[in-house]
Amino acid sequence: MADESLHLPFPPSLHPLPPCMAASSKGMSNVSCSSASCGDPRWPRRHDKYYWADGNVVFLVDGTLFKVHRYLFEQSEVFRAMFSLPPPKGTPVEGSSDSNPVRLEGVSNIAFEHLLWYMYPMSHGEMTAVPADAWLQILNLATMFDFERIRSSAISVLCRCPDPMFKLSVAERFHVDEWRLGCYVELCMRPAFFTEAEMRQLGSETTARLVAARELVRSHLFRRAHGQGSRWPCPNPKDSKKNSCSERVAHATCEVLLKGAEGTSPLVQVLRSILGQQPDGRPAENGLCGYCVLQWNNVIDDWLGTEDIRKILKGVFHRTADRSRETSPTCGLPSDTLPREDERQITSAL
């Protein structure tokens, strides 16, 4: 994956455009530094892109000056409270000029630039995409400064990642609790066992729970493959009863679970490569009929019994939590552990 350039799509903007951008996306002021500071590393430099001629608040971030529109930052509880504070008597308002900017300590200028990329979508001239690492930085600043809507938007984009370990690391760091159960379900349904690196990240307590849950989940899947549970009612009249779509899912599931699969691909993804449409658009040999391929999510959820699997996971974690209150049923990942950009990226096709 390291050699691939995978990006996340840009979501619809949640903000109205400032007046300078309403008629054109070329309203940025590429103002160079003053002669006193130009080229001198001791002086802050004005950002080449996000220093707006009609901006009304100046931020100093990691040695870079950004002149932006205050109303965008008033959507943050933190900045709204800061802007409401009167300056000391006889001093200018903080953020009113380059010489008296709002200083954001502990924030990198790259991360702040990514946040502004989200706030000013039309400044790019067209819809663009950024790496997953940039979305993590947007989520981090949105959480830090209490931009509730931006945080929600970043979470909705990052949740498309197919890697449950990535999502668990994000969930632990940014308290996205609703992701955890779904990630555990994916890990327990996966044909491949947990890797050593994954077990180290999960921690011994969570790994022990997931190992126990994985055995229950596999037993559940084998039982359904042998006729226990509901069967997807394939409407294709050409399907014989001995080789219906439901039978094909059962056969493929048993084969994958018994033989395993290369890498750490999720079970549903492996099944789709066997039963779904091929890359050239043709149906797979011995795959599902055209109707069932179009209803893929319904077919798989119904046949695998995804809701039953979620109940199994809830039961395992609740029982172990009742026996030991020392560790809560969370993923146990270190909060500062996040995947590198070249290792964890999300495809724009999601």
TrEMBL record:
SUPFAM superfamilies: POZ domain. This is BTB domain-containing protein. Residues 55-120 form the BTB domain. It comes from the Eukaryota. Residues 338-350 have a biased composition (Basic and acidic residues). Pfam families: BTB. InterPro entries: BTB/POZ_dom, SKP1/BTB/POZ_sf. It comes from Calocera cornea HHB12733. Residues 324-350 are annotated as: Disordered.
